[in-house]
Amino acid sequence: MTTEHFDAIVVGAGPAGNSATLTLARGGLKVLQIERGEYPGAKNVQGAVLYADAVEKLIPDFRDSAPLERHIIEQRIWMLDDTSYVGSHFRSDNFNEDKPNRYTILRAQFDKWFNKKVKEAGALVICETTVTGLLRDKKGRVTGVTTDRDQGEVTADVVVLADGVNAVLGTRAGLRPEVRPKDVALGVKETMFLPRETIDARFNLKGNEGVVIEAAGTITAGMTGTGFLYTNGDSLSVGIGCLISDFAESGVRPYDLLERFKRHPAIAPLIEGAEVKEYVAHMLPEGGYEAVPPLYGDGWVVAGDSAQFLNAMHREGSNLAMTSGRLAGETIVAAKKAGKKMSAKTLKAYRAALDDSFVLKDLKKYRRLPKVLETNKHFFTEYPRLLTHAAETWLRVDGVTKREKERDIVSAFRHRRRLSGLVSDMFKMGRAWR
Amino acid sequence: MSETPAKPPARAAKSKELPEHLKAYRHVWVFIELEHGRVHSVSWELLGEARKLADTLKVDVAGVVLGPAGEGTDQAVAEAFHYGADQVYLVEDPLLTNYRTDPFTKALTDLVNTHKPEILMLGASTLGRDLAGALATTLATGLTADCTELAIDGTSRALAATRPTFGGSLLCTIMTLAARPQMATVRPRVMSMPEPDRSRAGPVIRERLDMVEEDIVTKVLDFIPDADTNQAQLAFADIVVAGGLGLQRPENVQLVKDLAEVLGAEYGCSRPLIQKGWMTADRQIGQTGKTIRPRLYIAAGISGAIQHRVGSEGADRILAINTDPNAPIFDFAHHGIVGDALEILPALTEAFRARLAVDRLAG
Amino acid sequence: MSQGLTMVVCIKQVPDSAQIRVHPVTNTIMRQGVPTIINPYDLFALEQALALRDQLGGTVTVLTMGPQMAETSLRKAMGHGADRAILLTDRFFAGSDTLATSFALSAAIGKINAETPVDVVFTGKQTIDGDTAQVGPGIARRMGLNQLTYVSAIPAIDKAAGEITAHRRAEGGVQVLKTKLPCLVTMLEGTNELRRGSLPDVLRAERAEITTWNAKDAGIEDVTKCGLKGSPTKVSKVFAPKPRSERAAMIEGADATPAAIAAAAVETLVAADPALPGVITRPSALA
Ligand SMILES: Cc1cc2nc3c(=O)[nH]c(=O)nc-3n(C[C@H](O)[C@H](O)[C@H](O)COP(=O)(O)OP(=O)(O)OC[C@H]3O[C@@H](n4cnc5c(N)ncnc54)[C@H](O)[C@@H]3O)c2cc1C
Ligand SMILES: Cc1cc2nc3c(=O)[nH]c(=O)nc-3n(C[C@H](O)[C@H](O)[C@H](O)COP(=O)(O)OP(=O)(O)OC[C@H]3O[C@@H](n4cnc5c(N)ncnc54)[C@H](O)[C@@H]3O)c2cc1C
Ligand SMILES: Nc1ncnc2c1ncn2[C@@H]1O[C@H](COP(=O)(O)O)[C@@H](O)[C@H]1O
Prior knowledge:
The complex is a heterotrimer.
Chain A: E1 5-11, H1 15-26, E2 31-34, E3 49-51, H2 52-56, E4 70-80, E5 85-91, E6 102-104, H3 107-120, E7 124-126, E8 131-136, E9 142-147, E10 153-161, H4 168-172, E11 184-193, H5 196-203, E12 209-217, E13 225-231, E14 235-243, H6 244-250, H7 254-263, H8 268-271, E15 275-285, E16 296-297, E17 300-302, H9 318-337, H10 344-355, H11 358-365, H12 369-375, H13 382-395, H14 402-416, H15 419-433
Parallel strand pairs in A: 1-2, 1-10, 2-7, 4-12, 10-17
Antiparallel strand pairs in A: 3-6, 4-5, 4-6, 8-9, 9-10, 11-14, 11-15, 12-13, 13-14, 16-17
Chain B: H1 9-16, E1 28-32, E2 34-35, E3 38-39, H2 41-57, E4 61-67, H3 71-82, E5 87-92, H4 101-115, E6 119-123, H5 126-139, E7 143-144, E8 149-152, E9 159-165, E10 170-176, E11 182-186, E12 204-207, E13 219-225, E14 239-243, H6 253-263, E15 266-269, H7 271-275, E16 296-300, H8 306-312, E17 317-322, E18 335-338, H9 341-362
Parallel strand pairs in B: 1-4, 1-6, 4-5, 5-12, 6-11, 7-11, 14-15, 14-16, 16-17, 17-18
Antiparallel strand pairs in B: 2-3, 8-9, 9-10
Helix pairs in contact in B: 4-5, 6-9
Chain C: E1 5-10, E2 13-15, E3 21-22, E4 29-30, E5 36-38, H1 40-56, E6 58-65, H2 71-79, E7 84-88, H3 98-115, E8 120-124, H4 135-143, E9 146-158, E10 163-170, E11 173-180, E12 183-187, H5 199-207, E13 211-213, E14 233-239, E15 249-250, H6 258-272, H7 276-279
Parallel strand pairs in C: 1-6, 1-8, 6-7, 7-13, 8-12, 9-12
Antiparallel strand pairs in C: 2-5, 3-4, 9-10, 10-11
Bound molecules: flavin-adenine dinucleotide (2 copies) and adenosine monophosphate.
């Protein structure tokens, strides 16, 4: 045990932990950040799209020094069946703005850069150290952490749990229920090297312009999930994710699913000739609003994935993590300045700040979605097939009258899915969206 | 010299031109590594290589033998000629009985300063590397270690020594332009063994070691030969069977040993197995293990990472067994089996056993 | 023995070679984003020094020559328990080969020695990027230290008598050598396992002042002996190994059973190298 006492300890050096630590250090607190990876980012996985807004709030001039791959000027959303896709593309020169809104990044590099800023702000950061548990006093107040090193206990007024999706620490300490398999998805991803020029030519890009593709459909073999392909500087990120509970039930191996996705005729030509640099698997909290655990207590708060802050519908996670980390930090700094104890009563202000931000507002908006998708698998089987069938029928010029084609399309829908089912799906989806 | 008039020719010329006093350095030398009365085979491999370089340069090849007077030394001198030396430099002294850095460095430094070779090659053994490092510093010259290819640069007449760098993912060619001799070490089994010509002989130039035991601080108290007769002889094996993480469990290492047993082969492994303690460190094949050059290499459940590749791709023939058809090992293996090593290895053991039995009956 | 041993461990920060890729088009190394690590061989040297300190007392100083960012490695080494760290950094050092590196390191060790006489200098067996195993012997020669390479164990050190006994890996066996302090030891790999520092160790390491010396601080007057200028070897080209043009020919067998595949494999191998059965020597194979 070190005799040294800190104002705050932050567990984890992902987006949530870094944002919290930065805010705390800037607020003049004596803060210790503990990361188990070899360096911040070493263990972190993300697609990855970075949303400027959340970073800007912490580091307004981040564009000058952050390792950014490409800014996104085009978004494709595809619905795939086994051989085709239908979809929408949105591309705009307006995204070639001074301060672009979305970037692709490589997390290992970005997190390292972010953490450098954290250190510069005066926080003490140690890596290769795993927090194994929380220290509690007789009243159950969290008073510090234990680590996997010799003499590994250290105390603080407050602990910020930003330990990611598994949320082991909170669970182990009984501060929250265990994470349920249906609330987490497993994402597998490969970074594939491809020369910059080839990417530019293949996706019609110049300079630092980038494209992101989000894909859903039969590629997930009936499981709830989506695939993606992002352009980085000289690599592509290709990945796919599905609910853990679905993987368990179907017996499909995540890696095989990714291989299948890569072989899909819509994807294969885009990644042709690319060399796999790295394969990673990581979990995502997709339980949404209903799965959000208790967020604060005596001597602790939780932020980021560990609090299930992820908007699966819009593939946002890091921005929720950063925002929640920042709000946690601000709450603690304010309490410290006011000379308050870090009690549940004081830290309740964190929950209020979250309620007031897009983090919980957005999650609330989609609160029904996880259930709809989880219990209506035809969104991942029938609908993609029907949609592509419709498109193909409509576009093939073969002497068949347009009226007949219309009839064919409608009857295909009715045949696969009873009208009542169709209507109810639309209704559920609509409600989930509101 | 000055084909590029756009640039000031002086500078270009300067970097290529050998300073006057170094022009006296001529001939290619090979240090003949003699220990416990035996010459390390890498020395003969180097003589073969030296012959090629010397022929290009139109100079002679010399062997350098250091050791105590006696049968071993005589034998080494005679064989040096068989393997291609035109002359042999010989320092005989009891102080050279067991290898120690100081007397060997002194003997070789004096020889070099007196007779001025332009190239000096040593085996990249523990002895050769110890000696080469000390010698290069003393002579303030360049040393390129662990070369895989040696050639003469046409324009500068310099030794162009190619070696792996960055963990074997790249090769680089290194030259020593303004210092002599140019030194290089080469690992055993990287160069091929020349055919000896038993009729060859030549002049022996003897020098003395100007040293007494009192000058040498380091004493050899003992030599403990590797007692373990199971000590892997991977570098010299004709057939090597190796396993990787694809073996999945420590007990499956036996499948590799079984096949090796039937083939009279050595067995080895990829690095993770050493780290897990499934095999002893002397059996690691690769960049940080042994370089092998067998006739046949069978690799089971090994992905073929670059560090493994650099140590094994010198094999004449490679058969790889891997469940993943895209495993990188199939990029440099000659034959591949996509399948479960745990099933294929025992089947191979049986198939070879059967085949050998047939051969024996037939012949 | 009151003051214990003064030890210096030379460590180098190297790119993790497992993660280096070659740009398939331009054939250049893509070092961007490649994490750096402490040269794995140096960790054995570090642990040996720490173990001797546990045993006999004294101090362990880690020393590296490299860019400013090599500080990370020094801090890591301190997190494992080293007492002090020195970073030798100067633009004059850029492009050093082993001769120039050992020159600069020797100067720095000389300076440490002037403060407190150094008993043992440790280096790793070799680096994974330079890979020459030369810097250790280079330092020893230049500083007139007794040189012990490929050391697998140090059974005895007697500071009062100024003597050290070491096991040195040689071809076909182990030499037991005795020499005088001060000496230079290059440690063989696999000889020990680096300890994990305690939490107070890492906290101290993270906050430690890293002593930074430039050429002048290290007492180097003749900078022409440093860096590119002081390096007799020149890298004339760097290139990717030629990939084998064909991929492996797959052996499939009459049916997909392991036995059929194995039989086909034996046929293929013998057809490709008819002398192969003759090479298979061990008679027990036929039992
Ligand atoms: C395949 C995939 C694609 C994604 N794509 C996107 C995207 O495009 N855009 C987006 O915004 N989001 C995306 N996300 C989500 C995003 O990655 C997460 O929401 C975000 O990383 C959450 O940040 P965090 O700081 O809460 O957790 P993490 O980033 O997981 O960080 C937690 C940190 O804590 C450390 N840690 C954990 N336990 C301990 C312990 N006991 N002791 C010490 N340290 C510990 C971990 O090593 C880690 O560094 C994606 C996720 C995945 C898996
Ligand atoms: C500085 C440095 C030096 C290194 N030096 C070396 C070195 O000298 N030698 C070395 O080998 N490595 C070395 N490595 C490690 C190297 O990078 C690789 O990590 C290592 O070679 C991988 O070992 P592997 O192929 O056994 O394991 P993996 O890469 O895990 O591969 C296992 C393979 O087995 C296959 N497989 C799985 N199950 C089966 C089955 N049932 N049947 C058949 N196949 C199966 C898999 O498809 C996979 O291809 C070094 C690394 C570094 C950083
Ligand atoms: N730049 C450096 N700084 C400190 N030590 C070094 C440096 N380069 C090499 N060494 C040491 O010398 C040993 C041998 O290195 P090398 O000769 O490059 O194989 C390494 O294991 C290190 O201990």
